[in-house]
Write a structure and sequence with these properties.
The protein is an all-alpha fold. It contains eight helices and no strands.
C-alpha cells in the first residue's frame, strides 16, 4: 500500500508539473502572438478631436450635447409632424421614411464595415462622415416624454420608433452579437478569428433590417 500511495503521489506531482508547464507554455505563446499582432498593426494617427486641448474637447462635447438636445426638439416638434403628414397616406413608404432616421444610421455603418477593406481612403473617409452624421441624427430620436406627446401617423410613427428604440437597444445588441460570434465562430467551429470590420458591417445591416421589419409588423400591433 505504501509503494502504491507513493507511486500515485509521484504520478500526481508529475501530472501537476506537466499541466503547469503546459499552462506556462500556452501563456508564453499567447503573449508572443499578441506582441506580434501589436507589432504588425500600424499605429493610427490621432484624429482632429484627439489633437485638441482638453478645454477645446470639453467645449466640443458640450456643444454637441446642446446641439443634440436642440435637434431633438426640432425633429419631433417641426420635422416629423410635417414629414409624417406628407408621407402618411402611403403605409409602406411612410414606415420606411420614418425608419430611415434611426435604422439608416445602422445601415450606413454596415456599408462602412462591409467596404472597409476594399474602399479607397477617400471613399472610406466619406462613408465614415456620412455614418457619423447619420448617427447624430439617430441619437436625436431618443423617445422622451416630449416625443411621446407628438401626434404622428401610425405607419410613420412605427418607423421612427423602431429606429429610436433600435438606438437605445444597440449596446445590448452589440453584446449579443459579440457573444454569438464567440460561441458560434470561436467555440463551435473552432476558428480563432476576431470580429472583423466586414462581419461587423453585416451585423449592422442585419440589425437595421430587423428594425425595419419590427416597425412594419410587430410595433404597429
Amino acid at each position: 500500500m505504501g509503494k502504491a500511495n507513493r507511486r500515485k503521489r509521484r504520478q500526481a506531482a508529475a501530472q501537476s508539473k506537466r499541466g503547469q508547464a503546459w499552462a506556462e507554455q500556452w501563456t508564453e505563446q499567447e503573449q508572443a502572438r499578441r506582441a506580434a499582432r501589436a507589432a504588425t498593426k500600424p499605429k493610427a494617427d490621432p484624429n482632429w478631436f484627439q489633437r485638441q486641448k482638453v478645454g477645446t474637447q470639453v467645449l466640443v462635447v458640450l456643444g454637441a450635447v446642446v446641439a443634440a438636445v436642440g435637434g431633438h426638439f426640432v425633429l419631433w416638434g417641426s420635422v416629423f409632424p410635417v414629414l409624417g403628414e406628407a408621407v402618411g397616406r402611403v403605409p409602406v413608404v411612410s414606415t420606411v421614411v420614418g425608419w430611415l432616421f434611426g435604422g439608416g444610421a445602422f445601415m450606413a455603418w454596415g456599408v462602412v464595415g462591409v467596404n472597409h477593406a476594399t474602399a479607397k481612403p477617400g471613399t472610406k473617409a466619406g462613408l465614415q462622415v456620412v455614418a457619423w452624421s447619420w448617427t447624430v441624427v439617430a441619437v436625436m430620436l431618443f423617445p422622451t416624454e416630449y416625443a411621446n406627446d407628438v401626434s404622428l401617423p401610425v405607419d410613420f410613427w412605427a418607423g421612427v420608433y423602431a429606429g429610436a428604440y433600435g438606438v437605445i437597444m444597440s449596446p445590448l445588441a452589440l453584446i449579443v452579437a459579440g457573444l454569438g460570434w464567440w460561441l458560434l465562430v470561436n467555440k463551435l467551429f473552432g476558428y480563432k478569428k476576431e470580429l472583423g470590420h466586414q462581419a461587423f458591417g453585416w451585423i449592422c445591416v442585419g440589425y437595421a433590417t430587423l428594425l425595419l421589419i419590427w416597425g412594419s409588423t410587430l410595433l404597429r400591433m
